[in-house]
Amino acid sequence: MKRIFFFFFLLGAIVGNAQGYEFTTVIDLQASPVISQGRTGTCWSFSSTSFLESEIIRLTGKDIDLSELYTVKKTYPAKMENYIMRQGKAQLSEGGLAHDVLNAVRLHGLVPTEAYSGLVDVGTDRHDHSELIAVLRSVAETYVDNPSGRLSQKWRQVTGKILDVYLGEDVPEFTYNGESYTPQSFLKMTQINPDDYVNLTSFAHQPFYANFILNIPDNWSNGSFYNIPLDEFVAVINGALDKGFTVELDCDVSEKTFSSKHGVAVVPKSKEDTKKSLSEPVPEKAIDQAYRQQEFESYATTDDHLMHITGTLKDQNGKTYYKVKNSWGTDKRRTTYDGYVYFSESYLRLKSISITVHKDALSKELGKKLGL
Is 41 helix (H, G, I), strand (E, B) or coil? Predict the structure, then answer.
């Protein structure tokens, strides 16, 4: 595998959060630098783009900074169509899932950040979509609530113009490393095939080894997921990382025991250990399928955030953690591990909503069960 680095337990570097945790790196797969999504709800694009960047490294050895905002721009017209054609009875927000990125890539290709940054204001280096989403919602509601009772066909043109103003005009052709590309020819160069990726989840209210539409708010595009038992779900993640494949993750980060500042995400066995768990290892709950389902169906677990799993670690007690890349920047006041958060296995089992991974990362047995 090209430019993919593994650091195994006996040779791993020891890192800690200066408060009691001591971590030893086990697997560390190459990923692009941590950046910030700014004041936007586009973690789905930032994390999935990071995932694709690691895939390009794995496939070609090339380290390419892809544009997150090109994908965002190409996704908003589909969101607007979904909302308007459902007469306002649908989700219209900044949120999304990994398959939204793959759908946009399939239809519209890829471009590098240097060709399309999504930043149009001079001197601005921080994304802020608060005004953009407010304008899009207002436009969508205007067309839905048209007093004439007939939908004007101008909404597509208006949406396109708004996106041009806030994110920049399209780049049908561009130059990268001295060569000319279109978004589709650039996609071909990266060797990414959107159809090579599968979405997996684990919930007991649907049959295992079949696919279904996961009913969560950000699944506005009605994407389907293969459903597998929880132990196999975790085994897929472990097996992928062992083989050199990183993993895209949709998860819940609303818990008090998820902390970007402390760099850890855990599930303490005792509530009394909530605060303590952020600074040192504590006993954790054993998470089974039934408890995971209970937390999901009670809204205790929701799809708050998408992130990118790039490796594993062990703490001083030998417990496994997952190295998860965030998109909230690397400000030392907000993060301990340069923008990464270390998920305990208990947290991963309980708070993961779904994953996206290359189909070659699956075992032959599971691939056969899923008909892949």
Answer: coil
**What angle is formed at CA 227 by the lines to CA 225 and CA 228, rounded to 5 degrees?**
140
The Cα 125–Cα 134 span in angstroms is: 21
Residues 292, 345: contact at Cβ < 8 Å? no
- Each of the 372 residues of the chain gets a pLDDT tens digit; together they read 333 333 333 334 555 554 699 999 999 999 999 999 999 999 999 999 999 999 999 999 999 999 999 999 999 999 999 999 999 999 999 999 999 999 999 999 999 999 999 999 878 889 999 999 999 999 999 999 988 888 988 999 999 999 999 999 999 999 999 999 999 999 999 999 999 999 999 999 999 999 999 999 999 999 999 999 999 999 999 999 999 999 999 999 999 999 999 999 999 999 999 999 999 999 999 999 999 999 999 999 999 999 999 999 999 999 999 999 999 999 988 889 999 999 999 999 999 999 999 999 999 999 999 999
Q: What is the pTM of this model?
A: 0.93
Question: Quick one: residue 191, left, alpha or beta (phi over 0 = left, psi -120 to 50 = alpha)?
Answer: left
Strand partners of residue 200: 226, 355
Euclidean distance between CA atoms 172 and 176, whole angstroms: 13
Report the alpha-carbon distance of residue 48 to residue 325 in Å, rounded. Answer: 11
Report angle CA 28, 31, 32 to the nearest 5 degrees. Answer: 150
